[in-house]
Inverse folding.
């Protein structure tokens, strides 16, 4: 398909980029332990960028029968647009560093297979605690192929599978309903024990209690810290936000912004993590980028346009869907583990597993004041009880400065926007002190 | 297309439906007085849905081969037999057109871009100003095995002004959004709203952090609207009630708030959440959720109405044909009362005046909610003192509905986008000013 489109656009303009994707998706909705709804379908989409007479134009369609209209529209837009001061060229063809890995275990996994797996998942969950039920959720399996072609010789294709499970588990106890929510994401088949840990935590949550307001040490689980990173750190290290003076870290390059123990890197070539990719969504080869190294801010993330504009090296962080221009987005954000169990180091404090309403935090400044949707009171190095009606307030950039220790085990948490997924791979992190708002 | 619907029934579908949705979109974005993006695009999606063997099957594609789509939908529905049902609805036909004064298609891209550029100059202390214009024309077609045939030619237009202000001590931002059903006439207020966003961002630089605690608090119309939507509307959605994920389970006919609390969802209003017909093909209607403090109704899609054996409310919605239709709000609001704003502020000894929402979230099962105000003011002895920042309203639905002391006369709507189960749909919400006694305020200090 894309060959035909390239032949057409080539005749009209010298500089172009075609971003084509097609996707097959199978989704199942869950209600009260059962699969009640199955949806299956295919979609394809094309995004066309052209550079004509120093001007950029962009158009998209998912009606590929009329791709000519889409190309023509992009050219028309370019002709009426202002001259672009920064754009020079689409990304040049370059060698890619690693062979591409694909997992095809999902290709022949059909509704019947999900129905069978689902029975096992539910039965394993019930073995944890018979009173727990899956109140609602969904499975979603997708196979997506993207194809990037441009006038500079780039012609790249990648196919990836994704398997997602979202669930809300519930349980009645003491005349009250308790529930907990989680997302699971994999490039492979789901394990039939996937819900067991969530079920265990839910069973424990019936012991929820309030605590008094205090300032105390906090242990962040990767799920909670990733949600803060995803809204605020991601914003601050985005090269475009730096150019636009919106980043809190704009003038802090090579300066100390965190505890010297902290190193945060972005590694798209880490093939075991979900956001693995060999090239970004402009066809630029990906590489490891140190964001913070021993407490110093080392790099912002760029796509080709903003790198050029800033006079910096492209870091290969363009991410997009066909209907939008490339945005800058992290891939696999990694913090190395430490050597201890950080909860054991806390005499009196709070362990935060999940935060509620994180999208309401101030992304630019890092300020937040949020309900703890899943958290635990720690006393003498041990988890005592789950928390009820407790809030935490603070600032993400202050947290980075006040990290004291790292847990032994890393785990994956996910963020990103829409179809663009960022994977966070981090250990538990102990922070010196934050304000907890409970009962007075 | 009727023949495909009939064939699906012959093949064992208890109910069958076809949808076709196409759209044309324009997006213009100016950042720091430079064009960031000018784009146009089109979308097209064909979908079918069947109910067979007590399960819903859906298939969709960019190709309109309904034969293939129905076969796939039937196969998948039959693979997971269940007990799902659907509430029937009388046959009707309707052809709707969103009215506008000035067709967005009659205004050139050039003119739209120039309007944004004219107002893109940042004022003092504004380090970044991002302006976005968007319009879309959406065509929807709906046919089902009950013989209903519906079309809707919809037109949307709106803008977004986002200002970042910075000085030696602070860094703040403020966003002003307007979106409406209609045409280019909506842009009339654009210049004043860009100025407004910049002014507010600068004002926030001098705002002090709020202190948390229990305070008498006045909330304005947009924030009150978000409260109606987040704290009450979601808990009325019948799928959540069915799953016992709503605090309003078994509460119909019970008093859950003060006498002066009346809350409504009304899909017939031509606001941002207008639903002349919902994704189930049911006509939009006005549904009383709370009347004089008493819970009256839940919000239904066809399947939840069948499950509860209650009347349809026209609230079945989906993001697009690939998704499950679930109960969603349309235009949700707290009905006007008889108090005025000055009276409310004068009642406060020490407390806050909170304005507009910067997003919120609610745990419908436990009833706990949180939403951040875009602006806040400290109030002392009946007078507004100074601006505060990073302030949020936190609480429990059932507690706070009893704390609404005064309800104003000044109802005002606000457009928003509501997300649930990964599906984003346009909604609006509204409220008059309200005085809440001993509201729980979350602050940084």
């Amino acid at each position: 398909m894309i060959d035909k489109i390239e032949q057409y656009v080539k005749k009209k303009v010298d500089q172009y980029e075609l971003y084509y994707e097609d996707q097959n998706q199978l989704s199942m909705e869950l209600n009260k332990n059962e699969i009640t709804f199955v949806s299956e379908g295919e979609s394809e989409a094309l995004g066309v960028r052209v550079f004509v007479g120093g001007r950029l134009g962009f158009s998209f369609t998912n009606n590929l029968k009329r791709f000519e209209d889409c190309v023509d529209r992009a050219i028309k837009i370019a002709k009426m647009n202002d001259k672009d001061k920064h754009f020079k060229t689409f990304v040049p063809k370059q060698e890619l560093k690693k062979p591409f890995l694909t997992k095809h275990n999902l290709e022949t996994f059909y509704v019947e297979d999900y129905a069978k797996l689902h029975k096992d998942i539910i039965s394993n969950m019930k073995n944890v605690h018979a009173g727990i039920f899956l109140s609602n959720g969904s499975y979603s399996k997708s196979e997506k192929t993207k194809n990037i072609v441009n006038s500079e010789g780039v012609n790249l294709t990648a196919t990836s599978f994704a398997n997602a499970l979202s669930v809300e588990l519930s349980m009645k106890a003491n005349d009250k309903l308790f529930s907990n929510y989680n997302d699971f994401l994999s490039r492979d088949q789901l394990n039939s024990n996937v819900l067991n840990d969530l079920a265990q935590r839910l069973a424990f949550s019936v012991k929820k209690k309030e605590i008094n307001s205090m300032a105390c040490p906090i242990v962040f689980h990767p799920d909670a810290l990733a949600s803060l990173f995803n809204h605020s750190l991601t914003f601050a290290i985005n090269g475009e936000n730096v150019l636009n003076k919106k980043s809190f870290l704009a003038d802090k390059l090579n300066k100390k912004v965190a505890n010297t123990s902290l190193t945060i890197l972005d590694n798209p070539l880490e093939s075991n993590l979900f956001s693995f990719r060999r090239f970004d969504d402009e066809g630029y080869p990906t590489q490891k980028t140190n964001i913070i190294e021993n407490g110093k801010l080392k790099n912002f993330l760029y796509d080709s346009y903003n790198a050029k504009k800033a006079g910096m090296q492209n870091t290969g962080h363009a991410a997009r869907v066909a209907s939008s221009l490339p945005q800058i987005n992290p891939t696999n954000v990694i913090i190395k583990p430490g050597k201890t169990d950080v909860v054991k180091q806390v005499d009196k404090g709070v362990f935060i597993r999940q935060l509620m309403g994180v999208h309401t935090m101030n992304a630019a400044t890092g300020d937040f004041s949020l309900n703890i949707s899943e958290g635990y009171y720690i006393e003498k190095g041990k988890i005592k009880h789950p928390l009820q009606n407790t809030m935490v307030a603070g600032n993400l950039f202050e947290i980075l400065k006040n990290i004291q220790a790292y847990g032994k085990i890393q785990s994956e948490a996910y963020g990103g926007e829409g179809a663009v997924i960022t994977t966070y791979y981090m250990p538990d992190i102990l922070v010196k002190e934050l304000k907890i708002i409970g009962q007075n | 297309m009727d023949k495909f619907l009939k064939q699906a029934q012959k093949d064992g579908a208890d109910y069958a439906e076809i949808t076709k949705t196409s759209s044309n979109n324009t997006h213009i974005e100016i950042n720091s007085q430079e064009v960031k993006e000018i784009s146009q695009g089109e979308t097209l999606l064909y979908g079918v849905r069947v109910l067979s063997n007590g399960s819903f099957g859906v298939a969709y594609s960019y190709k309109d081969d309904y034969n293939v789509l129905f076969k796939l939908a039937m196969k998948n529905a039959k693979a997971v037999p269940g007990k799902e049902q659907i509430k029937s609805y009388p046959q009707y036909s309707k052809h709707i057109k969103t009215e506008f004064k000035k067709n967005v298609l009659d205004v050139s891209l050039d003119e739209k871009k120039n309007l944004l550029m004219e107002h893109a100059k940042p004022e003092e202390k504004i380090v970044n100003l991002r302006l976005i214009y968007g319009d879309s024309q959406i065509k929807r077609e709906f046919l089902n095995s009950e013989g209903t045939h519906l079309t809707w030619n919809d037109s949307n237009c709106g803008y977004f002004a986002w200002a970042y202000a910075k000085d030696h001590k602070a860094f703040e931002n403020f966003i002003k959004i307007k979106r409406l059903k209609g045409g280019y006439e909506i842009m009339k207020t654009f210049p004043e709203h860009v100025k407004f966003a910049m002014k507010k961002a600068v004002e926030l630089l001098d705002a002090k952090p709020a202190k948390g605690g229990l305070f008498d608090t006045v909330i304005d119309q947009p924030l009150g609207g978000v409260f109606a939507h987040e704290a009450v509307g979601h808990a009325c959605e019948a799928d959540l009630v069915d799953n016992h994920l709503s605090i309003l389970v078994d509460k119909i006919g019970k008093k859950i708030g003060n006498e002066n609390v009346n809350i409504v969802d009304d899909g017939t209003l031509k606001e941002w959440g207008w639903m002349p017909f919902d994704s189930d093909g049911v006509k939009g209607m006005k549904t009383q959720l709370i009347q004089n403090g008493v819970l009256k109704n839940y919000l239904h899609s066809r399947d939840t109405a069948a499950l509860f054996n209650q009347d349809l409310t026209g609230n079945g919605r989906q993001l697009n044909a690939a998704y499950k239709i679930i109960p969603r709000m349309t235009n949700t609001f707290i009905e006007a009362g008889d108090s005025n704003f000055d009276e409310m502020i004068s009642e406060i000894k020490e407390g806050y005046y909170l304005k507009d929402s910067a997003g919120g979230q609610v745990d419908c099962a436990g009833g706990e909610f949180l939403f951040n105000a875009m602006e806040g003011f400290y109030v002392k002895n009946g007078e507004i003192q100074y601006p505060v920042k990073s302030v949020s309203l936190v609480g429990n639905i059932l507690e706070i509905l009893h704390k609404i002391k005064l309800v104003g006369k000044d109802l005002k709507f606000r457009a928003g986008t509501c997300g649930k189960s990964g599906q984003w749909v346009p909604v609006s919400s509204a409220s008059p000013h309200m005085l809440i006694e001993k509201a729980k305020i979350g602050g940084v200090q």
Summary: The mean pLDDT of chain B is 95. The CA atoms of residues 257 and 399 of chain B lie 8 Å apart. Chain B is about 20% helix and 45% strand.
